[in-house]
């Protein structure tokens, strides 16, 4: 039995807007549809898109004044033709964003400011689910200091990597330290035991000669003075 895609490729496809049977090359690709093609032909799709833009009060889509050579791309914001490397990558076709990197970054900052009030608010909301106001309230509950070492004015949100729940506000060193110990109470307990000197250690008693020594049992005679 011939597949749906091969059948459409052989006889063409009817556009429901203009009711014409057209070649598959007259339709954009759409992997989510059974036949792998867009619902409307390219001409009708462009007309519908323009009508939608006018209805929403969006101006006509800008186009480059002259054809763009291969290997280059036109940025609608700065109206410049630049190499493809100057445009951020995207997984969607054609593999590059519509705006060059400076214009893309400018648009991103404007969107964050308009929707979230700034980069920090966006970062806190996106990663931890709290805003600047909640951050300040949590810090005030801690007395304005790091919840671990007491260093003033900590800036880092600490959260449980398994549940995503926020635990407190820490300074850079304490937040990084917990991450290095993988949030493991067992690892931290062993580190405390090590720092208290209750583990066996290798001690140099003569040049090239070492002895395993436990500080709880005293040091070797050569270390007494």
Automatic annotation (TrEMBL):
Keywords, alphabetical: Endonuclease, Hydrolase, Nuclease
Source organism: Micromonospora kangleipakensis
Keyword Ribosomal protein: no
GO terms of molecular function: endonuclease activity
Keyword Nucleus: no
Membrane-spanning ranges: none
Protein name (record): Recombination endonuclease VII
């Amino acid at each position: 039995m011939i597949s749906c895609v091969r059948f459409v490729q052989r006889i063409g496809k009817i556009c429901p807007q203009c009711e014409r049977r057209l070649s598959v090359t007259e339709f954009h690709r759409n992997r989510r549809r059974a036949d792998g093609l867009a619902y409307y032909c390219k001409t009708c799709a462009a007309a519908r898109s323009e009508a939608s833009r006018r209805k929403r009060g969006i101006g006509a889509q800008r186009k480059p004044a002259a054809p763009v050579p291969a290997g280059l791309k036109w940025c609608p914001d700065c109206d410049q033709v630049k190499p493809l490397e100057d445009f951020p990558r995207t997984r969607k076709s054609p593999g590059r964003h519509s705006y060059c990197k400076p214009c893309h970054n400018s648009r991103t900052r404007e969107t964050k400011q308009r929707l979230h009030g700034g980069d920090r608010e966006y970062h806190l909301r996106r990663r931890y689910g709290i805003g600047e106001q909640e951050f300040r309230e949590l810090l005030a509950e801690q007395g304005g200091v790091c919840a671990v070492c007491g260093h003033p004015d900590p800036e880092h949100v600490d959260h449980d990597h398994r549940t995503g729940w926020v635990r407190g506000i820490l300074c850079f060193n304490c937040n990084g330290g917990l991450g290095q110990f993988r949030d493991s109470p067992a690892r931290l307990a062993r580190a405390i035991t090590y720092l208290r000197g209750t583990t066996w250690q290798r001690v140099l008693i003569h040049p090239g000669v070492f002895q395993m020594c436990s500080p709880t049992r005293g040091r070797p005679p050569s270390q007494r003075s």
